[in-house]
Amino acid sequence: MAEKDAEPQPPSYPVNLVKLNAPTDSTISNVNLYSRRAEVTRTFKFKLTSGQNKVIILGLPDSFNDDTLRVEGRGDATIHDVSIGFEPPPASAPPATPQSQQKLNELYSQRDQLDRALDRYERTLKGLNDYLRSLTIQHVDAETLVQTIESVDTASKKYEDKIAEAKQDLRRVGDEMREEKMVLNGAGKDKAESRHQLRKMATVNVFAEVEGEIEMVVTYGVENASWTALYEVRAKTDSKEAPVEISYKAAIAQSTGEEWANAPMTLQTATPTFGIGLPKLEPWNLSIKPQPVSTYSTYDTHADAAYYDANANAATHNYSNEVEVILE
Fold first, then answer.
1. Where is the DUF4139 domain (predicted)?
2. Other C-beta atoms within 10 Å of 229: how many?
3. Domain ranges (residues) in the chain
4. How far are the Cα atoms of 69, 200, 202, 261, 302 from residue 66, in angstroms, in the given order?
5. Tens of pLDDT along 145-183?
6. How far is CA 105 from CA 49, 61, 174, in A?
7. Phi/psi at 268 (nearest 5 deg)?
8. Kind and range of the H or E element at 56?
9. Which residues on neighbouring strands pair with residue 27, listed in sequence order?
10. pLDDT tens per residue across span 16-55
11. What is the pTM of this model?
């Protein structure tokens, strides 16, 4: 028996991976703040390649409700599916060693040498400029003046380059010193713990017809956010038109781990629909009540009772197997 040839499989295309950090790669376009919750809307702009794209959004708050996540794409792209999870834990900071302390001491020495060199270069450059400003035509002839200016210009450029190089080395040494201090003081762990509120991630699979930039709007609800209405009343004794002035304010508190500075915000007095569980409906058991058996009888006070079969009287309604009928 001949085997059937396997059907040809469609060619597989590489998946383009796009990683975004919510705090740095997006802007908060709106915050709807309720009494105990908030709805945050973020806008991302990034480029996609034609075909399959896997967009990973990092840095989402731990307190956001998974059921509230909504993703909307604006552009020539189609969103296939969205999944939510937690970021993998960061690598633990290396333990402090005597070598770390020795390296930190060396970096301190390098910084001091660079500071002294930078001060020396700046004083030399200032002396050259002061010397150039002190020259006058009465003191030197024109040819000598030109040669002097060219020499000062060459020397000034040399020391300007030295100053720029020294500043760059100082920045590098400063970065290395911060890293060594983090190792010695355990700041690497503290830094990881400071981000524990922004560990959630969302994965969005997007198919783009053509390569280009798209805009993605991500909306989600978070806990640990609230606002309280405050009222400030001022009475003016010298004004008859408006003796009392009321100012409406709001005390806003949030511990989501996000930065809401300068974000447009709307204070809501209604109760949000997200984060509230549906009521549990208990079953109602229904049953059919059995009908009672009806019995008909006829009584004659002037005659003795007699019993006959119910079928003898056609006018009798048979509501049971046996019906008691009394006839004269």
1. 218-309
2. 11
3. 98-185, 288-328
4. 6, 10, 10, 24, 88
5. 778 788 888 888 888 888 889 888 888 888 888 887 777
6. 49, 39, 12
7. -110, 140
8. strand 51-60
9. 43
10. 999 999 999 999 999 999 988 899 999 999 999 999 999 9
11. 0.52
